[in-house]
């Protein structure tokens, strides 16, 4: 896989993780409102009327967060493969020889020798 392809896969992994996480939190909020209601906006709990729905929705939320956990693991594997395959950019010898340029850079280089 090319560098561009590896970065594309990594970015899509991150996007999918955030979409799954957002969907999980939104559905958790809906089920919370169905179970507890909201006094401020005068919503009563719907658990008594729609008990089967609340149980299924709670299971769905559990599955959503399980999938999120698995996708985090896959994303870690993807990022490991991406960052281990390609080295970090290096400083060219001409750029390194011109460092330090000014007095402040010279003082910093003296304080933290390589």
Automatic annotation (TrEMBL):
Residues 3-68 form the Casparian strip membrane protein domain. It is a multi-pass membrane protein. GO terms for cellular component: plasma membrane. Residues 91-114 are annotated as: Disordered. InterPro entries: CASP/CASPL, CASP_dom. Keywords: Cell membrane, Membrane, Transmembrane, Transmembrane helix. It is found in: Cell membrane. Residues 91-101 have a biased composition (Polar residues). The chain crosses the membrane at residues 7-34, 57-77. Pfam families: CASP_dom (PF04535). Belongs to the Casparian strip membrane proteins (CASP) family. Homodimer and heterodimers. NCBIfam families: A_tha_TIGR01569. This is CASP-like protein. It comes from Papaver somniferum (Opium poppy).
């Amino acid at each position: 896989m090319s560098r561009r392809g590896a970065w594309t896969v990594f970015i899509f992994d991150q996007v999918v993780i955030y979409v799954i996480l957002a969907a999980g939190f939104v559905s958790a909020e809906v089920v919370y409102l169905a179970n507890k209601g909201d006094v401020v906006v005068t919503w009563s709990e719907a658990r008594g009327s729609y008990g089967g729905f609340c149980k299924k929705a709670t299971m769905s939320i559990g599955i959503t967060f399980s999938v999120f956990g698995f996708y985090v693991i896959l994303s870690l594997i993807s990022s490991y493969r991406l960052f281990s395959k390609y080295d970090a950019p290096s400083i060219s010898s001409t750029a390194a020889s011109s460092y330090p340029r000014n007095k402040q850079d010279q003082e910093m280089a003296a304080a933290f020798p390589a």
